[in-house]
């Protein structure tokens, strides 16, 4: 199974993808791919300001890599785990330390909802305390536009 390719915004020719428990990277817009590690992690996002910082998940936890996917550290406290129902992951483009993770729950399941981190994933809090989501599929962070 091949995961969704993830683009490094600082260098649009750099893409990451996970396939068959192996991580791949290209720096020339998919002309050549390099295998750079065996991992059961699916890459979810690349930090928009630091292409070496990756976020990924498997069925048990959310992970962060500070070195382009060579090593992975589990996310901090506050997320519902195991992370089997992670449905969406977003990095705030204006502040990459702010992350959002959306989890689908089943009816009556308190683990569903949107969780937010303001410290790069070290800690998380439920950002949807007043809402219960039983079928959450996507989380999108839109840019803020200011009137002049």
Provide a descriptive summary of the structure in words:
- This protein has 148 residues and is mostly beta strands.
- The chain has one domain (6-126): Methylamine Dehydrogenase, Chain H (7 Propeller), CATH 2.130.10.
- Helix content is 0%, strand content 34%.
- The protein is built from no helices and twelve strands.
- It has strands spanning 6-7, 15-19, 22-26, 34-38, 42-46, 54-57, 62-65, 73-74, 86-91, 99-103, 113-117, 125-126.
- Strands 1-2-3-4 form a four-stranded antiparallel sheet, with no helix packed on it. Strands 5-6-7-8 form a four-stranded antiparallel sheet, with no helix packed on it. Strands 9-10-11-12 form a four-stranded antiparallel sheet, with no helix packed on it.
- A hairpin with a 7-residue loop joins β3 (22-26) and β4.
- The termini are far apart.
């Amino acid at each position: 199974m091949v995961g969704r390719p993830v683009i490094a915004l600082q260098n649009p020719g750099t893409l990451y993808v996970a396939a068959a428990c192996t991580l791949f990277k290209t720096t020339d817009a998919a002309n050549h791919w390099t295998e750079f590690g065996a991992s059961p992690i699916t890459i979810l996002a690349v930090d928009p300001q630091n292409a070496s910082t990756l976020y990924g998940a498997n069925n048990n936890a959310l992970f962060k890599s500070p070195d382009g996917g060579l090593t992975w550290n589990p996310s901090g406290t506050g997320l519902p785990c195991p992370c089997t129902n992670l449905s969406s992951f977003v990095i705030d483009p204006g502040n990459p330390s702010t992350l959002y993770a959306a989890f689908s729950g089943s009816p009556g399941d308190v683990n569903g909802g949107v969780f937010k981190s303001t410290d790069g994933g070290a800690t998380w809090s439920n950002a949807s305390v007043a809402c219960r989501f039983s079928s959450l599929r996507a989380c999108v962070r839109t840019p803020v536009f200011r009137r002049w």
